[in-house]
Design brief:
five-stranded mixed beta sheet, two-stranded antiparallel ribbon, alpha/beta
Length: about 475
């Protein structure tokens, strides 16, 4: 049935009036504070007496709550007394809310601080019970600097179990983030290395570098696996394969694999490389490009100088000094008495990249003190005092210093192969310059050799021999 136009307008007008009255009736009125002892907090009416809230801001609901629960208690109050009582209850409610918000904020800050300390402890590979010591130090400092904040520091939980749980939560969160990023990779490559820790347990480290469609590169540690049995190519492959599957990485997006060149790694049949290629053929993936770690190559090139006889002598002397506690203590006291520039000698560790150069340089700088100490122990120092030996040691120190500088350029995150290649090319160009200078007797880039040249006759310094080594090396 059709409705006439005037009737439709009348109906719309009355509907608007009803909606307006309904909205007005549900707006909180100021007089409700004194009449019914209510206050509005975040658009919700809350009773000042019991703290209850009314779901609908309507006078009927508010009045009904007051009359059924609190009317008898406050009916005898006059207007001034009621107003005063309302103000007191408002202040009490506001203080409670402020205290709750403050305590909640303090609790969140304490948890965040606990995670920060746990992260630093885990990154520095310190025991989990170090958290209690850190907390004790923080509280002691707080007592002096800001005593009023002592309770906030006491609220930070850093017990051994708490730090362990925080470290596990952080590790789990990082793993989940890496898994989410892995879903967006258009290609990724792996770097695998195996080494033994102080307990002779083989540790297999697996690194990943992936790139998404926006060319954002992610480089992270994918996994660290302890291998308590054999470390054959099959064992390494099983651990790598398990790690890739656990992170839900697609095999068809694996494009590169970098190893250290060991037989168990680069074997074409039973090694990791051969087994990875076979796995990718089964998955019908693309061709796998295999790389030899550029830092391992640089370390191998350093051994091509054929000066192991110098380093072996240095290592023997260092081991004699540091292997026995008595010799070590006496050597440090001896250096202190002589007023030497250094107070001790470091060990030579083959697995550490910069150890070889540091030990050789320290030995050269303390060569006179070492000779005197060895003579006091009744050891023959003829070889150590030989000028040719000391010249070769100086040359080795200078070369190792340049190699260590190159090594540091090749290390670190966010390095691409082109940057490393340019660094190696620049080093080879430097070798040509150094070889030309060495033939001319110019030691501008060989500081230790300069020291030996000043202390010995020029004829003793074998410039031609050192230049030949540089030619062979490059």
């Amino acid at each position: 049935m059709l409705i006439s136009k005037p009737a439709t307008k009348h109906k719309l007008k009355s509907t608007r009036k009803m909606a307006k009255r309904k909205t007005e009736n549900r707006n909180f009125q100021d007089r409700w504070e004194t009449d019914y002892m209510f206050i509005v907090v975040k658009d919700k009416p809350i009773c000042l007496v019991c703290g209850a809230n009314v779901s609908v801001s309507k006078e009927y609901n508010i009045r009904r709550h007051y009359e059924t629960r609190h009317h008898d208690k406050y009916k005898d109050l006059n207007a001034n007394e009621r107003l005063k009582k309302v103000e007191e209850m408002k202040k009490g409610l506001m203080s409670q809310q402020t205290m709750f918000t403050k305590s909640k904020s303090q609790s969140e800050a304490a948890v965040k601080a606990s995670f920060i300390v746990a992260q630093e402890i885990a990154k520095s590979a310190r025991p989990f019970n170090e958290g209690e010591f850190v907390k004790m130090c923080m509280v002691k400092i707080c007592e002096v600097v800001c005593p009023e904040k002592k309770q906030a520091f006491l609220n930070v939980s850093l017990s051994r179990n708490t730090v362990a749980e925080r470290a596990c939560e952080l590790a789990t969160n990082l793993q989940e983030q890496l898994m989410r990023k892995g879903e967006d990779f258009v290609a990724y490559s792996l770097a695998v290395d195996e080494s033994s820790d102080t307990s002779d347990t083989a540790q297999l480290s697996i690194f990943i570098r992936g790139v998404d469609s926006n060319l954002c590169v992610t480089e992270e540690l994918l996994g660290l696996k302890s291998m308590h049995g054999t470390t054959t190519g099959k064992d390494i492959f099983e651990e790598v394969s398990k790690c890739v599957d656990e992170m839900k990485l697609p095999w068809d997006k694996l494009v590169g694999l970098t190893t250290d060149g060991a037989p168990a790694m680069c074997g074409q049949k039973s090694g990791l490389v051969g087994r990875m290629r076979e796995k990718m053929r089964e998955k019908q993936a693309g061709e796998l490009t295999v790389y030899h770690c550029i830092i391992h190559q640089e370390a191998l090139c350093g051994k091509a100088l054929k000066m192991d006889h110098i380093m072996s002598t240095v290592t023997q002397v260092v081991n004699f000094i540091k292997a026995k506690g008595l010799n070590h203590r006496q050597f440090k006291s001896f250096l202190e008495e002589l007023g030497a520039d250094h107070s001790d000698m470091p060990y030579h560790t083959e697995v550490r990249w910069l150890s070889r150069g540091k030990v050789a340089k320290r030995f050269f700088e303390l060569r006179e003190e070492i000779c005197l100490f060895m003579e006091s122990k009744g050891k023959d120092t003829t070889e150590l005092r030989d000028e040719k030996f000391q010249c070769e040691l100086a040359f080795l120190c200078d070369i190792m210093n340049h190699l260590d500088a190159l090594n540091l350029q090749l290390q670190g995150r966010a390095h691409v192969i082109t940057d490393m290649y340019y660094a190696v090319r620049a080093f080879r160009t430097k070798l040509r310059l150094w070889e030309s200078q060495m033939q001319q007797g110019n030691l501008a880039h060989f500081l230790c050799c300069q020291v030996m040249k000043e202390q010995t006759a020029t004829a003793v310094m074998p410039f031609a021999q050192f230049a030949e080594k540089l030619i062979y090396w490059r």
